[in-house]
């Protein structure tokens, strides 16, 4: 593990663009990294919280009133209480560097865990917004969502270097 948060790149920018229309009373980012998304969302949500297993390298988020909790996923959050949950997980399937900020683990267990936790804490009328690359088996993420009563739709995508990045939204099935 690097002990340092993932630095924002093209994937973070794509996710931020997809989050542009969201607002509400509460927002949680799982794996908040340096807190850049917290800064962006703080003006549109009453409560903005980020969790991560590493300390942020920057503190811009502090000036916005957002909160940052050192926690694993959303383990410190009650079920069904958040309007919007977002995450840009470590989505690379390789396990060669030992850096949990970029490696999703065998079978992408890290992004799947992020999604499971997000689906647990989001309100039924809320949304989960997340980013994956084209190496992910989307059917597995759809199945995981379906088991919790949610459905996934693609809301944005962009080709970057050697991969296609896509942002998905999970909402309750009606």
Q: Explain this structure to me?
A:
By secondary structure, this protein is an alpha/beta fold. The protein has a single domain (10-172), classed as Vaccinia Virus protein VP39 (Rossmann fold, 3-Layer(aba) Sandwich), CATH 3.40.50.150. 22% of the residues lie in helices and 33% in strands. The chain contains 4 helices and 7 strands. The protein has helices at 10-18, 36-41, 109-121, 138-147; strands at residues 24-30, 45-52, 67-70, 82-87, 122-133, 150-160, 163-172. Strands 3-2-1-4-5-7-6 form a 7-stranded mixed sheet. Helix 3 packs parallel to helix 4. The chain is globular. The model has no long low-confidence stretch (mean pLDDT 88).
Q: Provide the CATH architecture.
A: 3-Layer(aba) Sandwich
CATH structural class: Alpha Beta
Helical content stands at 10-25%
**Number of distinct helices:** 4
CATH homologous superfamily annotation: Vaccinia Virus protein VP39
Q: Per the principal axes of the C-alpha atoms, what is the gross shape?
A: globular
Low-confidence stretches: none
Rg (C-alpha, Å): 15 Å
| Overall SS class | alpha/beta
Trace the largest sheet across and list its strands: 3-2-1-4-5-7-6
CATH fold type: Rossmann fold
Overall strand count = 7
From the N-terminal CA to the C-terminal CA, the straight-line distance is 41 Å
| Residues in β-strands, percent | 25-35%
Overall average residue pLDDT: 88
Number of domain units: 1
């Amino acid at each position: 593990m690097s002990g340092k948060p993932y630095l924002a790149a093209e994937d973070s920018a794509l996710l931020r663009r997809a989050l542009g229309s969201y607002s509400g009373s509460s927002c949680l980012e799982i794996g908040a990294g340096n807190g850049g998304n917290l800064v962006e969302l703080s003006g549109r949500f009453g409560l903005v919280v980020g969790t991560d297993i590493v300390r942020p390298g920057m503190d811009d988020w502090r000036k916005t009133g957002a909160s940052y909790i050192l926690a694993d996923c959303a383990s410190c959050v009650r079920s069904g209480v958040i309007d919007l949950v977002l995450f840009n997980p470590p989505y690379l399937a390789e396990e060669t560097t030992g850096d949990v900020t970029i490696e999703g683990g065998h079978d992408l267990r890290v992004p799947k865990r992020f999604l499971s936790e997000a689906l647990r804490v989001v309100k039924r009328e809320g949304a989960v917004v997340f980013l994956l690359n084209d190496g992910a088996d989307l059917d597995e993420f759809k199945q995981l969502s379906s088991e919790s009563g949610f459905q996934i739709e693609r809301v944005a995508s962009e080709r970057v270097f050697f991969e296609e990045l896509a942002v998905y939204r999970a909402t309750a099935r009606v």
